């Protein structure tokens, strides 16, 4: 897989794509942790949704 | 029809009296057109070439910035609620307001364009073409902008949000407006092709704009 | 399971929790296959050489940029017409992901353009249309960011999304027209009229992989957004209880 004279451009394109996709993934995961923590925090303080009196969240 | 006529006349009266924004748009237009030669240099040949584009950009910005208050003032003093609950369809009320707005801010821009064109060294024949394209295109700008104005009332946010949301939608009008003006000056395409499309864009925004703006107001204020 | 069953956010969360690992796994497998194909199997283009490899990420990104707005438009109908409670969650979370792929399309396009055209950016019709699409995504994200109340932002965003959906083909048409006016000869076309099978197959795999990636990210982001709204509701409830008691 010789990339020829334009190797830098090809590698840069794949690298930027990888960075952006990774960034989106990290954003989703970090956001999920933050929301789960906030929910657990509220849960611990006894603030619950009426529909879920005893929360057994796997999240 | 009476309530709509009353609304139309009221908006015109509000725009031309003290505190109204009728003259402001033209003044802004004048300043933008003055700034361009200061930025690109006083080369008359260059200004003549890019003149139609400058006039179109100036008119686009002036008509959009003036739109910020199309519904905001009515929302602030509560008359928007009266319009919303009135028996006349909201779409037609939006249309009446947009028409009044165009007459008080869009039309002055069209009238001012030939005068400003003199400063940019645009020939009379070309000037007629630019004025004609502005006459055909500014209603589309007002109607597209009305959607943005309705959104900014629904969101209770003004300022830069309106142009950020609306400017991308005005790209076709800008392209065909400037293209028609340039076609009349340098060719090679005939004036008719882009001008007809420009008119079609105005008609399309006439058909879509009031409905979208009314939907934004209804959903935003319920 | 009908769409109406998913109106219950808890049921949707359960479904998302069950689907996401599978989706993520399938995405990874497809990407492995697609990347292997593009890097070790697919031949170089006789004109463009190895730079044709950029196409395998450029074309899927362009597709997902448009896919994102289509998804938002369907969600906008869901908000305005059917009042589906998850529709504006779907619309809100699709915007940043769609914007990311429109951005990737622009970046890979200009990285592809540099060896082909000799410059990073040309006002090529396709690139310009995607640029406008990207700007509209950014406008949409600003709209979501400026308004605190999600349901009000949702309805305004829905109206704007639909106006944008009507406008996008017109913008595409006018930019194409403008482009032929200023640049009579097109510099190059993606693939040309007949794409060879040796290139088409990896491209299809990559498009599928990217689409699954979008769906996975979107589902995960929707799950986060539902949780964020729960946190918001609970906090408001708590604040209300505190003020009331």
What does this structure look like?
- The complex is a heterotrimer of chains A (59), B (222) and C (245).
- The radius of gyration of chain A is 21 Å and the shape is rod-shaped.
- Chain A is built from one helix and no strands.
- Chain A has a domain at 9-44.
- With 59 residues, chain A is mostly helical.
- Chain B has ten helices and no strands.
- With 222 residues, chain B is mainly α.
- Chain B is 82% helix and 0% strand.
- Chain B has one domain (2-221).
- Chain C has one domain (20-42, 49-186, 197-231).
- Chain C contains six helices and no strands.
- The N and C termini of chain C lie far apart (42 Å).
- The chains are: A mainly alpha (59), B mainly alpha (222), C mainly alpha (245).
- Chain A binds chain C through residues 1-7, 9-10, 12-14, 16-17, 20-21, 23-25, 28-29, 31-32, 35-36, 38-39, 42, 45, 47-49, 51, 58-59, and chain C through 10, 17, 39-40, 44, 49-51, 53-54, 57-58, 61, 96-97, 100, 103-104, 107-108, 111-112, 114-115, 213, 217, 220-221, 223-224, 227-228, 230-231, 233-235, 237-238.
Give me a quick take on this structure:
The complex is a heterotrimer of chains A (59), B (222) and C (245). Chain B has 222 residues and is mostly helical.
In this structure, how is the largest beta sheet of chain A organized? none
Portion in strands of chain A? under 5%
Any idea what the shape of chain A is? rod-shaped
The percent of residues in helical segments of chain A reads 55-70%
The end-to-end distance of chain A, rounded to whole angstroms, is: 44 Å
Strand content of chain C: under 5%
Largest interface: A-C, 35 and 39 residues
Would you list the SSEs of chain A in sequence order as H and E? H
Number of domains of chain C: 1
Helix share bin of chain C: over 70%
Distance between the termini of chain C: 42 Å
The overall pLDDT average of chain A reads 79
Identify low-pLDDT runs of chain C: 184-193
Q: Quote the average pLDDT of chain C.
A: 83
How many strands in all of chain C?
A: 0
Cα Rg of chain A: 21 Å
Question: Which descriptor suits the 3D outline of chain C?
Answer: globular
């Amino acid at each position: 897989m010789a990339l020829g004279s334009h190797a830098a451009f090809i590698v840069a394109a794949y690298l930027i794509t990888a960075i952006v996709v990774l960034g989106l993934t990290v954003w989703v995961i970090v956001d999920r942790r933050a929301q789960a923590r906030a929910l657990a925090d509220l849960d611990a303080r006894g603030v619950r949704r009426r529909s879920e009196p005893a929360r057994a969240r796997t999240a | 029809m009476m309530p709509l006529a009353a609304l139309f006349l009221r908006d015109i009266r509000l725009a031309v009296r003290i505190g109204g924004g009728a003259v402001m748009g033209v003044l802004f237009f004048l300043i933008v057109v003055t700034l361009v030669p200061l930025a690109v240099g006083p080369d008359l040949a260059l200004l003549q070439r890019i003149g139609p584009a400058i006039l179109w950009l100036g008119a686009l910005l002036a008509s959009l910035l003036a739109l910020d208050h199309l519904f905001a003032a009515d929302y602030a003093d509560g008359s928007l609620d009266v319009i919303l609950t009135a028996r006349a369809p909201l779409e037609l009320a939006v249309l009446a307001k947009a028409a009044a707005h165009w007459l008080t801010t869009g039309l002055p821009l069209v009238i001012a364009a030939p005068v400003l064109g003199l400063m940019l060294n645009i020939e009379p024949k070309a000037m007629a073409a630019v004025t004609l394209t502005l006459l055909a295109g500014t209603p589309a700008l007002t109607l597209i902008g009305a959607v943005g104005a309705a959104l900014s009332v629904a969101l209770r946010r003004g300022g830069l949000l309106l142009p950020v949301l609306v400017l991308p939608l005005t790209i076709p009008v800008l392209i065909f407006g400037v293209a028609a003006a340039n076609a009349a000056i340098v060719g090679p395409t005939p004036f008719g092709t882009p001008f007809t499309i420009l008119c079609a864009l105005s008609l399309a925004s006439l058909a879509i704009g009031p409905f979208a703006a009314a939907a934004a107001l209804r959903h935003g204020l319920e | 399971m009908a769409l109406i069953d998913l109106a219950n956010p808890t049921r949707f969360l359960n479904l998302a929790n069950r689907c996401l690992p599978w989706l993520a796994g399938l995405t990874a497998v497809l990407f492995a296959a697609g990347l292997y194909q593009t890097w070790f199997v697919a031949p170089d283009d006789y004109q463009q050489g190895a730079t044709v490899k950029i196409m395998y990420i450029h074309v899927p990104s362009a597709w997902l940029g448009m896919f994102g707005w289509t998804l938002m438009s369907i969600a906008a109908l869901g908000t305005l017409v059917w009042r589906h409670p998850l529709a504006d969650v779907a619309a809100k979370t699709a915007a940043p992901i769609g914007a990311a792929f429109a951005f990737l399309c622009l970046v890979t396009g200009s990285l592809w353009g540099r060896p082909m055209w000799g410059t990073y950016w040309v006002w090529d019709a396709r690139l310009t249309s995607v640029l406008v699409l990207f700007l509209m995504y950014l406008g949409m994200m600003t709209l979501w960011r400026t308004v605190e109340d999600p349901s009000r932002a949702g309805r305004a965003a829905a109206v704007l999304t639909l106006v944008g959906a009507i406008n996008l083909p017109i913008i595409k048409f006018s930019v194409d027209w403008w482009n032929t006016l200023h640049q009579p000869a097109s510099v190059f076309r993606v693939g040309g009229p007949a794409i060879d099978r040796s290139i088409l197959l990896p491209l299809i795999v990559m498009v599928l992989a990217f689409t699954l990636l979008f769906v996975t990210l979107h589902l995960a982001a929707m799950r986060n957004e539902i949780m964020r709204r729960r946190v918001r509701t609970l906090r408001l409830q708590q604040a209300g209880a505190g003020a009331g008691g």
